[in-house]
Each structure stands twice: as structure tokens, then as C-alpha cells.
Design goal:
Layout (H helix, E strand, L loop, with lengths): L3 E9 L2 H21 L3 E3 L2 E2 L23 H14 L7 H24 L4 H7 L2 H17 L4 E9 L1 H16 L1
Antiparallel strand pairs: 1-4, 2-3
Helix pairs in contact: 1-2, 1-5, 2-3, 3-4, 3-5
Amino acid sequence: MAGEVREAELESDRTARQIGRMALTFLAVAALVVSAFVDWAGPLVGDKLTLKALVNTEFHTQSDFTKTVGALAILVALVALLGLVDRTGWVTRLAGAASLIIFVMFAVQAYRYFGDDAGAAVHHSRVGVWLLLGSGVLLLIGGFLGARVVAVPAVVEAEMAREARAENRARLRD
């Protein structure tokens, strides 16, 4: 009666964790969408600020919405919403990391734009940038509230299972 050893996956499904993850994700998505349409640096609004502001110290406006940091924030928000489909939360964490990367890229350029003065860069960064940072943190926290898949060893005794089925069939025949 040799047993066969296999690996089984158990998924912890805590309703409170899933509800918390959904709430944090929806709050972060709302913050990302709002950040796309509010001020980022001085009078520049996210839906007018060019994507080049993330890699260049010149903060120019852009008339094409798809080429703005606001559009990028909305794209990250859509990825975060898609992350709710996956129960483990890794897509939500990915969206949070993307949001934080955008924040860091903008912060570096703002620091350079305002003459390597961190105080001036923080002072001139407006609510859109801070909403982006907050949403990234919320998405990271929410992503870690996803369901956990744990691999545990499980012993399957094949011969004993076959014998038990044979005994059950014999009892049913009688």
C-alpha cells in the first residue's frame, strides 16, 4: 500500500480581504482619474501636460489627449480595474508600481526643472502628482490583499482509494 505524493494548491479565500482589495482599488482608480484632470505643475493640467515631461525638464502642453500624462494615468487606472479579475492581486500591484514609477519620473524632472531645489519642486507640484502617488500606494496595498495560493504536500494513497471504491461497488451490488 504505497502512497503517491503530490503537491496540492490551497487557495485562501477570505471575503474581507477581497472586499478590502476591491475598495482600495476603486478608491485608487478614482484618484487616478481625478489626477488626470487636475493641476500637476503650476498651472499645467494633467490632460494637457505632455508625456515628455516625464523624461525632459521642459513642461509643455499637448493638444492630443493620448500623448499626455493624464491619459497615462487613466491607462494605469484601467489596468488596475482589470487587476480585479485576477484573484491573486499581482496585476493590481503592477498597476500600483506603474503609478509610483510615473510619480518618480515626474518628481525627478520637477527637481531638475526647479534648479535642483527639492523644496521648490515639492512646492510647485500640485494635487495631481500627489493623487498619483497616493493611488500607487493604495494599489500596492490592495494588491497584497489578494487571495493566497499555498502549495502543500498532499499524500494520495492510490491503492487504498481503489480498494475503497471496489468495496463500495460490492456493497451496492448486494
